[in-house]
Design goal:
- Residues 81-110 are annotated as: Disordered.
- With 132 residues, the protein is α+β, with helices and mostly antiparallel strands.
- It has one domain (3-128).
- Helix content is 31%, strand content 24%.
- It has a five-stranded mixed sheet with strand order 3-2-4-1-5.
Length: 132
């Protein structure tokens, strides 16, 4: 049985609307291979896909948001926040973001059509988001 690690977000967190990626790797040290990174997905799709993949195998999936940044300076700002021990810029109501680890059971993964529709919604949000 695999492990899923993700952020425990407060209700209505704006972070939930970001695109999300899944990083899947070995659960233990006995296997030596590079993790696989997939995405972007909507959060619900990322969680469901990760659960479906790791549920019956000794794998770990980390589901985390992408932070779309439009230039090098914005990326440098994120690096400085990370170095300072801050995962993401704090927005109202997000002070209680914690990392959650849980064992998973197989659930219904989204269909290809649902994932593709999610990509369209992500692309639309990214294209309409003002530069920060």
């Amino acid at each position: 049985m695999g492990t899923l690690v993700t952020l425990d977000l407060p209700v209505n967190s704006p972070v939930a609307d970001l695109p999300w990626v899944i990083t899947i790797g070995s659960l233990g040290d006995e296997e030596d291979w590079e993790p696989v990174v997939c995405g972007p997905y909507e959060r619900a799709h990322a969680l469901a896909l990760a659960q479906a993949v790791v549920a019956d195998e000794d794998l770990m999936a980390v589901v985390e948001p992408l932070l779309p940044r439009v230039d090098a300076e914005a990326i440098r700002d994120e690096i400085e926040l990370a170095r300072a021990g801050t995962e993401m810029p704090s927005t109202e109501g997000d002070q209680d973001i914690d990392q959650e680890t849980r064992r998973v059971r197989p659930g219904r993964a989204p269909t290809e059509a649902e994932v593709r529709a999610g990509w369209v919604r992500i692309a639309t949000r990214l294209a309409s988001t003002p530069a920060s």
